[in-house]
Design brief:
heterodimer, A: mainly alpha, Alpha-Beta Plaits, two-stranded antiparallel sheet, 5 strands, 6% strand, globular, B: alpha+beta, 29% helix, 9% strand
């Protein structure tokens, strides 16, 4: 992949970069993971929109009153029937997938957010095991992959990433988009305060400030119950927070679920690692990382949500998944970069 | 120079102001046009008896509403505090059919699977000063004919074909409330200790939750 460089001492830096990027094209299959992630996020979001419509259709069918529906309701009923009739015979069979990412049923398997379990256990101060085991699979996934829920499933992440694209567009248009750095430990404080308040007041405090729960619920309210609830305003404010204070600021600094997942994923098994031999210090990974992590310095930490944007953007395939419970310490500048070559005494 | 920086700050100011007032207009759009009857909210079938226990256990996932065939389960969408996003049923708008799907689907112990006749959502209370057959021997019987539990829950008075009497097996599903044709709603779902007949008169004029005072 990389040829001997000693014969090209007369080239300038820019020419070097051009030459290197010409014959080094990314060939790793891992760079497609980001597309897969977008597919997963989109499927979750589309399902969240589709499920209330399916519920509406089921209620219309249960009432046996097609002739009494308004034209809009008839349109909904016909559309959902057309979409689902190839797959099911009875509308009741559509009930196999219900709920949202806060808590839901998937083909008889009940799944819940670990934050919901933590909040409920702390609020009721009792262990209701049928509910606690619903968070088992998410916890295992988090122990293996860290904040994989944040990057791959969370319906709010889709909106936040689109919001981040909007921020880039606004910045290009000349409007100031703030990228302030706050303290990452704020979200652990939010988690701790939420737990203490839940214990004190005996009500689950996380549900109303946790964006994925808000998004799933508000979509349902808007479609099936005739209007958004109060959570929509809060979610809008978090979007504004991301635009005007910090890039992906809510996920990085406030989200209690992100804090819980970060703690669980502290010693995750699968990590992204920089391969120092093929890294050329282009720093694209640092720029593309919405969580403000530092892949160039081998500093992923517990916050990485496995979004794999850095793998997708890396021109030399230097970033791969490895099985390791700890990040490697800083390995020095990349071997294809100028700094490494300069340190080696190479004039280029 | 001057003009350019002025235009820039103007654009910036307009942008910031429009973003800032966005939540205000959003709130205006979200404001409900018709205010829900606070007094008609009854708990779900199989819900924990104590409302505080229910708030402790309910995580606000909305699954019960999403499986409800008559779509009777509403949520505290605009209410803050501890009741935020917890479910309730307003029998005046839409009543429970006692299908039991919400109890099966609830992930927590907020709703526990209960046999139909042991559900306790309250009890129907008839205001005899407003019910047609009780007031002027009118012909109605809608509540008795709709009741899913039959004569053990609501029945006609002995020897009279149309005066309804609520019996002790009533579980408070509220179908009689939904079907009642009288606009002043002589029948309501109230807590069990308030009794099945509305009390009037000097000294008992109390406006309780779920009960209309005269």
């Amino acid at each position: 992949m990389y040829t001997n460089t000693t014969g090209h001492t007369s080239y300038t830096k820019i020419q070097w970069v051009i030459m290197e990027t010409k014959d080094l094209h990314a060939t790793s299959k891992l760079r497609h993971l980001n597309k897969l992630r977008w597919l997963s996020l989109s499927i979750v979001f589309i399902m969240l929109v589709l499920l209330p419509f399916i519920h509406l259709y089921q209620t219309y069918e249960a009432a046996h009153a097609y002739d009494l529906l308004t034209p809009t309701e008839k349109l909904i009923s016909d559309t959902v029937e057309g979409l689902t009739s190839p797959f099911v015979n009875e509308p009741e069979e559509l009930s196999v997938v219900k709920g949202n990412t806060w808590s839901g049923t998937l083909f008889g398997l009940k799944l819940s957010d670990p934050l919901a379990v933590v909040g409920q256990v702390m609020a009721s101060l009792s262990l209701y095991w049928p509910f606690i085991i619903t968070a088992f699979i998410p916890v295992i996934a988090t122990l293996l992959f860290g904040r994989i829920y944040c990057g791959w499933i969370c319906p709010a992440t889709l909106i936040y990433e689109l919001n981040d694209s909007l921020a880039a567009w606004l910045r290009k248009a000349g409007l100031p988009v703030s990228r302030r750095k706050l303290d990452r430990r704020i979200k652990y404080v939010v988690l701790a305060v939420g737990i203490v308040l839940s214990m004190y007041f005996g009500a689950i405090m996380f549900g109303s400030i946790y964006p994925p729960a808000i998004v799933g619920r508000e979509i349902y309210y808007a479609i099936a119950l005739g209007g958004f609830g109060a959570g929509a305003v809060f979610f809008l404010l978090t979007l504004l927070f991301d635009l005007m204070v910090s890039r992906r600021g809510f996920c990085r600094y406030v989200c209690p679920g992100g804090a819980l997942y970060s703690i669980l994923g502290r010693y995750r098994i699968f990590r992204i690692k920089r391969n120092v031999e093929t890294c050329n210090d282009c720093a694209k990974c640092n720029v593309v990382c919405q969580f403000g992590l530092d892949p160039l310095q081998d500093n992923f930490g517990m916050e990485c949500n496995n979004c794999t944007a850095c793998i997708a953007v890396c021109p030399t395939d230097a970033l791969t998944f490895t099985v390791n419970t700890k990040d490697v310490p800083f390995q020095g500048p990349g071997h294809l970069g100028h700094k490494y070559r300069k340190d080696k005494g190479d004039k280029t | 120079m001057k003009r350019r920086s002025f235009m820039k700050s103007l654009t910036m100011g307009i942008g910031i102001i429009s973003f800032g007032i966005l939540p205000f207009f959003m709130g205006r759009l979200l404001r409900p046009t018709i205010k829900a009857h606070e007094s008609n909210r009854i708990p779900l079938p199989g819900a924990l008896k104590n409302i505080e226990d229910f708030e402790r256990s309910c995580i606000g996932c909305g699954l019960c509403g999403e499986v409800c065939p008559p779509r009777c389960i509403q949520f505290h969408k605009h209410d803050g505090g501890f009741v935020a996003d917890t479910p309730y049923i307003d029998p005046v708008q839409k009543s429970c059919t006692l299908c039991g799907l919400c109890m099966e689907v609830c992930p927590t112990d907020a709703l526990t699977v209960t046999p139909v006749r042991e559900v306790d959502m309250g009890v129907a209370q008839i205001d005899r000063a407003a019910c047609y057959p009780w007031v002027d021997a009118g012909v109605c019987g809608a509540c008795v004919s709709i009741c899913p539990l039959g004569s053990s829950a609501i029945d006609f008075e002995f020897g009279n074909f149309y005066r309804p009497i609520v019996n002790d097996k009533c579980v408070g599903c509220g179908q009689c409330v939904e079907v009642c044709p009288e606009p002043s709603l002589p029948i309501n779902i109230v807590r069990r200790e308030l009794g099945t007949v509305a009390q009037h008169g000097i000294g008992v004029r109390k406006v309780e939750r779920g009960q209309r005072g005269f």
